[in-house]
Design brief:
- With 129 residues, this protein is mainly alpha-helical.
- It has one domain: Response regulator (Rossmann fold, 3-Layer(aba) Sandwich), CATH 3.40.50.
- The protein is built from 6 helices and 2 strands, in the order αααβαβαα.
- A two-stranded parallel sheet has the order 1-2.
- α4 links the parallel β1 and β2.
- α1 packs across α6.
- The longest helix has 18 residues.
Length: 129
């Protein structure tokens, strides 16, 4: 949602953006309610969302595949059979913070702090692409 809105606000139409989970726990679920509230309070439009799991074919479909943390990266490499074309990256790397991970708000309860991290990564991505 964050990247989609940033792209829209910049008037860019050269991005195709999708979201997929690296694991099955949230398949079919909407955005976690406290995170959704933080997004809405920050002015993001929260479109209807239903989590899906990424599949091996996604690797060939996308130019960039971005994970939030090391566990996501491990899961995606397992699903995709590695990263032979170097498409995988952590979101924080786009904010010039390589190796850093987005905190998991489920555990930290720091929803606004996590949103700040996501915004920085998305802004960096847009600047670099």
């Amino acid at each position: 949602m964050v990247l989609k809105q940033m792209v829209h606000e910049k008037g860019r139409n050269d991005f195709l953006i999708a979201s997929a989970a690296a694991t099955r726990e949230e398949i079919g679920n909407d955005i976690y309610p406290p995170m959704k509230r933080a997004l809405q309070e920050a002015g993001y439009r929260c479109e209807p969302h239903s989590a899906r799991q990424t599949v091996r074919a996604d690797y060939d479909r996308w130019d960039h595949i971005i994970g939030m943390d090391a566990e996501n990266m491990w899961d995606m490499k397992r699903i995709y059979g590695g990263d032979p074309n170097g498409k995988l990256s952590l979101l924080c790397a786009w904010a010039d913070n390589p190796g850093a991970e987005i905190e998991d708000p489920w555990y930290t309860r720091n929803f606004l702090g996590v949103l700040d991290q996501i915004e920085a990564g998305c802004a960096g991505l847009l600047d670099k692409l």
